[in-house]
Every structure is written in structure tokens, then in C-alpha cells.
């Protein structure tokens, strides 16, 4: 998203399909793979036992979403699915 001053910011958001609840986990001007991994950890921690209701993660094929990003969800038995290129 672009701010009123023309600065570009990136937000990482997760949408729970069955509840339609949107989780905006972070906003940054310079997203990195490490930042994305930390946001995934934060989401899993914040969801607590509700993470058990999740089965799939649909994500983009971006270099910021690494194997470690997927591993955060795999540890909770959530399967990462990649979007169409």
C-alpha cells in the first residue's frame, strides 16, 4: 500500500476462510524472508489452540516465503499450497 507521503509499505495478512477473520500480522517498508517467518510465528502463537482448525495455507510463490516459512505451519500440521504462477 502507498501512504499519503508516497512511501510504500507492505502488510502481511492472513484470512481465516471459515470465520472470515483477517489477521494483519505486520507492516514494513522492507519485507524480508526473516520478517515473513517471524510474522508466521506470531500468527501461530496468537491463534493458540485455534490453529488446530486450520488445514491449508494458500500463499504466493514469492522468494520471501521460504521453506522455513512453510515449516512454521507444517509444525502445526497446516499444509502450504502454492498459488498459480
Topology (elements, then pairings):
Layout: E1 10-16, E2 21-28, H1 33-47, E3 56-59, H2 67-74, E4 79-82
Helix residue percentage: 25-40%
How many domain regions? 1
Q: Please write the string of helix (H) and strand (E) elements.
A: EEHEHE
Overall form = globular
Major β-sheet strand ordering: 1-2
- Which value, in Å, is the CA radius of gyration? 13 Å
Assembly annotation: single chain
Largest sheet properties = 2 strands, antiparallel
Distance between termini? 22 Å
Number of E strands: 4
The fraction of residues assigned to DSSP E strands is 25-35%
Helix count equals 2
**Average pLDDT reading:** 93
Helix and strand composition category? alpha+beta
Low-confidence stretches: none
Organism: Kutzneria kofuensis
Protein name: NADH dehydrogenase FAD-containing subunit
Features:
alpha+beta; globular; two-stranded antiparallel ribbon; 85 residues; 2 helices; two-stranded parallel ribbon
Question: How would you sum up this structure, described in words?
Answer:
Strand 1 and strand 2 (21-28) form a beta hairpin. The protein contains 2 helices and 4 strands, in the order ββαβαβ. The two termini are 22 Å apart. The strands form 2 sheets. A two-stranded antiparallel sheet has the order 1-2. A two-stranded parallel ribbon has the order 3-4. Helix 1 runs parallel beside helix 2. It has helices at residues 33-47, 67-74, and strands at 10-16, 21-28, 56-59, 79-82. It has one domain (10-82). The protein is of the alpha+beta class. It comes from Kutzneria kofuensis. This is NADH dehydrogenase FAD-containing subunit.
Amino acid at each position: 500500500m502507498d501512504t499519503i507521503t508516497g512511501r510504500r509499505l507492505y502488510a502481511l495478512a492472513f484470512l481465516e476462510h471459515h470465520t472470515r477473520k483477517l489477521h494483519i500480522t505486520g507492516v514494513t517498508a522492507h519485507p524480508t524472508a526473516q520478517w515473513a517467518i517471524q510474522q508466521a510465528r506470531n500468527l501461530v502463537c496468537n491463534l493458540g489452540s485455534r490453529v488446530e482448525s486450520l488445514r491449508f495455507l494458500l500463499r504466493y510463490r514469492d522468494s520471501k516465503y521460504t521453506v522455513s516459512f512453510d515449516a512454521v505451519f507444517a509444525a502445526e500440521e497446516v499444509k502450504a499450497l502454492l498459488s498459480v504462477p
